[in-house]
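Section 3.1: Structural characterization of target chains.
Under the original work plan, the team committed to producing a structural model for every single-chain target entering the pipeline before any wet-lab resources were allocated. The record below documents one such target. The sequence was received from the expression subgroup and is listed exactly as submitted; it comprises 336 residues.
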Amino acid sequence: MKKKMLFIGIDVSKLTFDATIILKGSLQTVHHKQFKNQKTGYKQLVKWIKSLYVNFDESTWVFCMEQTGVYSYHLCCFFEENSLDYCHESTLKINRSLGIIKREKSDKADSRDIAKYLYQHIEELSFYKLPSQSLQKLKALVSFRRILLKQKVALQASSKEIAAFSDKETSRFIKTESNRLIKSYVQKIKKTEEEILKLMTEDSVLSEAYKLTTSVVGIGPIIAAYIIARTNCYSNFPNPRHFASYSGSAPFERSSGTSIKKVVRINKMADKELKSLLTNGAYAAIRYDGQIKQYYLRKIKEGKNEFSVINAIRNKLIHRVFVTVNRGTPYVKMDF
């Protein structure tokens, strides 16, 4: 890989994106410009960089942007079509790494911070590649299912609350219409889940990952789909420990010297939806896996907190899944 000389931070929004360039060895010299978030803007970006740095070919460039979902998708496609190296990083990771409290909040300032982060951490970063078309479809279906589920739960809660403080006739109307809508959401969720399973069986790569993942007792079809989507088919996380941290199954110690000792807790930034699904998987494993059941009963008998034990079981399931997928052969349940 050719040595990188130009570090370009990109802050993407729906209609525009800001770009800031930092030249290697000259952190104080920066160039900034805003472009339209469309193909003409992407071409103008390349033309602008070439006009500023005629002596550096495209192999010496590297871009970095925050994970902004669909807004950055077409820009990523453009980078890959033109063989331009780029990184995708979380906003939290960038801000924490820079160790800054922002006094200025603007797209220009954000692109400058991203460029600075890229310049300082280039040796630790890996270049990003868009997932396959099938994996992108899976991510979209999983996200759509999450939206439907949230709307169903919100409607159930709000309709009950409103009905409780209304007269009988109004209450009856609200309940009837709410039940009709909830039934519709249930059908749409079911249909979306069918599409997810259909996709998982049609694509050879996803199908193999799906079979291996669901071979672990406690990991059902939907949990498997979420894990595969979140991990980009097990390419985003180097080991199960990292994924356990991401999904809220790896507690961290909080202490300082000898005077401050806090209870070991899960990070609040964890993926709560995935954590909830894995909790369901943990209870399923207790029911259907003898080894997990014995572990659960033993820990409860020892006086351990139930939530702490469930968290440990979530962790066990994650490690089992990663080991199974890396090994390439289905998980074999031990009889007890």
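The CA atoms of residues 139 and 229 lie 5 Å apart.
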